[in-house]
């Protein structure tokens, strides 16, 4: 396979098609609309389902129905639209069916603006619907990772019968980079034994998120917690850069993590021993590895395009082993490497 110059949103859409996407339901919202536009042409030409819903509420419930048949299906949105999907996300999670949702984050709160942000961290990792569950959350930092994580998202969703969210900021959705697309997979026409396919010739099946008896609801929750434990043990992903001898550790994901990589290079040229941990899964979060690294550095700096949301998870992971500082930009402003370097130098000054 050869690399092509691809926009992030288009790359995710085409990767989903090649991963065997059978049905897509969505509503246009900047900065993810190119994803929907690409699928509006690509899916019909392949004889697959594309439907532009009347709202994000409709889209997530259409997705719920399609997933219940065992089909590979997906929706996508951006921050305000993703907010409207919360109830449907919780229904999908409670029904133990595999689903993939893409959130291309923009500035907020409210309608905000159409510029890149990471203000949905709380929403994707903590409040993606009500109840005691966590979706798997993949956070790409490049167009190539966005492609790879799209394919991975479907595989993980089906392996665990679990909800997977691909969370990227608008910068990655809009940027163009050389990247390699995966080969085309055949549509998997085999339906799992839980899928709703029509009851003729077999016992009836039911998918529901409603359990009126407390004991039954607790049993559902215990089953979910057991699955979350297995996912946490097996699917935590991160990238490290120059952490072996680091005195100071940067932690950032997505675009912020990518920009922090450049700040590490600048710091090293200035004689500062700085390393980077970039979470690729926001949940499960790489807490254990971060706790280990906190024991060997003099300071930790969290870099985000928000007011400090992943910051909470970093502090929980570090658990007081080292001081944790924060540098963030909000409202769609992208932090620059020299700004992060300045924050590193200030952190060093304070630790002397």
Helical content band? 40-55%
Oligomeric description of these chains: single chain
Shape: globular
Q: CATH homologous superfamily of the largest domain?
A: Thiamin diphosphate (ThDP)-binding fold, Pyr/PP domains
Pattern of helices and strands: EHEHEHEHHEHEHEHEHEEHEEHEHEH
Distance between the termini: 51 Å
SS elements, strand count: 14
At the first level of CATH, the class of the largest domain is Alpha Beta
| Beta-strand percent range | 15-25%
Q: Quickly give the CATH architecture of the largest domain.
A: 3-Layer(aba) Sandwich
> What about the largest sheet?
7 strands, mixed
Structural class: alpha/beta
What order do the strands of the largest sheet run in, or round the barrel if closed? 3-2-4-5-7-6-12
Could you explain how this protein is built, in words?
With 352 residues, the protein is an alpha/beta fold. The chain folds into 2 domains: 4-186 and 209-234, Thiamin diphosphate (ThDP)-binding fold, Pyr/PP domains (Rossmann fold), CATH 3.40.50; 238-351, Rossmann fold (3-Layer(aba) Sandwich), CATH 3.40.50. Helices cover 42% and strands 19% of the residues. The chain has a 7-stranded mixed β-sheet with strand order 3-2-4-5-7-6-12, sandwiched between helices. It is globular, with a radius of gyration of 21 Å. 48% of the residues are buried.
